[in-house]
Amino acid sequence: MRADRDKARARGDPKGAQPPRPRKSSPWISGNLVESIFAALILIVIIALYCGLPEAKGQGYTYPQQPVDSGYDLPLQPVRFGDPPPERRHELAPPADPPEDDPRDTPPPIFYGEEIDTEKSDSIVYVIDISGSMRVDGRMARAQSELIRSVSGLSGSLSFNVIAYSDRLYNFRDTRVPATPKNKAALSKWILSFNPHGYTATGPACARALSDRGNFSVVLLTDGLPNWGIHLPRHPNTPLVTQLAAQFAAHRGVIKEANPHGATIDVFGIAASGLMRSFCQAVSEDSGGSYYDVP
After folding, report:
1. What is the pLDDT of residue 238?
2. Cβ burial, residue 154 (10 Å; 0-12/13-18/19+)
3. How far apart, in Å, are the Cα atoms of 122 and each of 70, 94, 108, 236?
4. 3-state DSSP call for residue 44?
5. Model confidence pTM above 0.70
6. Which of 285, 139, 130, 258 is nearest to 204 (CA)?
7. Residue 5 resides in a domain
8. 3-state SS string over 118-146?
9. Do residues 44 and 172 both lie within one domain?
10. Domain presence at residue 114
């Protein structure tokens, strides 16, 4: 380079010839250009995703809900990203709610072989005649045995009570109790402690059973001759049949009046006949219950 300058000076150029300097490119311009291209690429990708995929819902993207026509025998069902494979969906499904208790799964009470409907309240109240007429032909013993058999077969989901009556009323318990083994055993001991005695207060006994407004099933066992608990004027010249009919009508009226909530009374007439049987049938019909003859 020095020799070149000397030659230049010899030609009269005092400063000597200077070689041209290369032009440097701006680092700021180069860096900005790369960043601009990268930002443009990102923007293109975002626009493509936004325009090309459906709206995101839940945990993944949801395809249209209509089955897709795949050209095969069966259409493809819609699939959501994140769903388990079809063969494993049953494994991951939430457990089903336990079925509700069906009243039909509870065995109904049985009395003299007849089913007693207790679905309305899951309870039952027995009304048992222990008056003096029940000593005839062993009626009392048969009634006690049948009551014990019926209560012993009650489902544990039921509650029960028993009212024994003559011219007095006797409650097994003040209110219904669960049909547990302990309460069943106590009932057996309690009912066997009675001997037949006194008159027959059928109307007042049923009215007491019906005072339990939460119970809708009543079973009445009687020989059918109500003659106590309701005072009626007596006339010496009135025929006996007329007096009995008036007595029966009065007891029937007491029972109807005590049943505004519509409990069903199923009546079992033990060796009942004539007017006594008619009375039992009328009591059951008034409540929508059934009447049964039993020996």
Report:
1. 83
2. buried
3. 57, 33, 9, 48
4. helix
5. no
6. 258
7. no
8. CCCCCEEEEEEECCHHHHHHHHHHHHHHH
9. no
10. yes
